[in-house]
Design goal:
Elements: E1 2-3, H1 10-23, E2 31-34, H2 41-47, E3 51-54, H3 60-70, E4 75-78, H4 91-98, E5 103-107, H5 108-111, H6 120-138, E6 150-153, H7 154-160, H8 169-179, E7 184-188, H9 204-217, H10 220-244, H11 252-281, H12 289-296, H13 300-326, H14 330-333, H15 335-369
Parallel strand pairs: 1-2, 2-3, 5-7
Antiparallel strand pairs: 4-6, 5-6
Helix pairs in contact: 6-9, 10-11, 11-15, 13-15
């Protein structure tokens, strides 16, 4: 149990856990990860018979990591120390773990939320949206990403190699388990009003944003790649149509926005490649042979060749515009016609140089990965 100033409830939670252990004849230990409590929570936990692990660095994730690393059991069940979960109902979690599941998640929406246990903002907006985003991005079947009661094997936890230190630790566990193709299941769990008189540590918008930010950062496809490809497609189609159909109502102003769409989209696609490479190297996301096969086909030489081709095409368009200008035909041909050439030239030059510079940087990331 992670603990930060839970003197009002920590003793009760430990006693309930001890009753569960004795009643079900389970060989277990109770670990309290004290994250700097100043209200005597650690002392109460020791007197009640728990093992207290002091974790100096602040953060929900840090507290859990400290407690889990100190655990000696094959299976671990984590839960909040605010008396919002029933410690007498842990057998479904243990049974699923014994069946071979790597991660067993509680689901409060299936088990029931007692009136007053969860603010309406969290119940009807925050948790459904964040869990929905997680399910959509990562093809997860978990319906409650943020349930504080969950069980997992120590070996599965080690394979996850969790990195986050704050409230997003809960999301990272589900995402990593999903990406590693671990066996995951859910257990209906009842959420009760907590027994604290003080305000909860959770801050709705701050911590909700941290979870959402984490989900986006762990999915470069949805954050960068897909939006980037869509912007590039829209830009090329609209820009090409305007370039070769000079008599339509769309003019050079529309073509400028098409150019911007291409450049922004290209930048996003490049960021997707950089992020994926960096995230795999830093073990933020697991190694994916299919993705690595695609990235492996990218090289500095290929990027430089493509970049120089774009630059030469841009220079060719630039020379053509200069020739028209030198012959005194720039304005005679029509400013809307000639500006199409200039915009196309500028776009090709920017794309070419971006690709050349990006290829060098990608090569640095590849060296770092190797």
């Amino acid at each position: 149990m992670p603990c930060l100033n839970e003197a009002e409830t920590i003793g009760l939670c430990i006693r309930k856990a001890k009753d569960f252990i004795a009643k079900n004849n389970v060989k277990a230990e109770i670990i309290i990860a004290d994250n700097g409590s100043s209200d005597g929570s650690g002392k109460i936990a020791k007197e009640t018979g728990a093992i207290v692990v002091n974790v100096a660095e602040k953060g929900y994730g840090r507290a859990l990591i400290g407690g889990i690393n100190a655990a000696g059991g094959k299976f671990i069940i984590m839960a909040d120390a605010d008396d919002s979960y029933d410690f007498g109902s842990l057998m479904p979690f243990l049974n699923k773990l014994r069946e071979g599941y790597d991660l067993v998640m509680g689901n409060r929406f299936k088990g029931g939320i007692v009136p007053g246990a969860m603010p309406p903002l969290h119940r009807y907006i925050g948790n459904p949206i964040l869990s929905g985003v997680g399910k959509f991005f990562f093809k997860s079947r978990i319906g409650d990403f943020h349930c504080g009661l969950r069980g997992f094997s120590k070996s599965a936890y080690n394979r996850m190699d969790l990195q986050t230190t704050g409230m997003e630790f809960a999301s990272e566990m589900v995402v990593k388990a999903t990406l590693h193709n671990m066996r995951i299941t859910e257990v209906p769990t009842v959420l009760y009003p907590d027994g604290r008189s003080r305000r909860p540590h959770l801050r709705s918008f701050r911590d909700g944003w941290r979870h959402l930010r984490f989900l986006f950062l762990y999915s470069p496809r949805w954050l960068f790649l897909y939006p980037g490809l869509m912007l590039m497609l829209i830009g090329f189609l609209s820009g090409g149509y305007i370039l070769f159909q000079p008599d339509i109502n769309w003019d050079i102003h529309s073509m400028l926005y098409s150019s911007a769409s291409i450049l922004i989209g290209f930048q996003a696609v490049i960021f997707a490649i950089f992020t994926k490479t960096f995230a795999v190297h830093e073990k933020l996301i697991p190694y994916n042979p299919q993705i690595e096969l695609i990235l492996g086909k990218l090289s500095l030489e290929k990027g430089l060749f493509a970049g120089f081709v774009l630059i030469l095409a841009g220079i060719a368009a630039l020379i053509y515009a200069v020739v028209i200008w030198h012959q005194g035909q720039f304005f005679e041909v029509g400013i809307t016609i000639t500006m199409r050439i200039v915009i196309s030239s500028s776009t090709l030059l920017i794309l070419g140089f971006q690709l050349v510079f990006s290829s060098f940087f990608f090569n640095v990331l590849q060296l770092n990965t190797k």
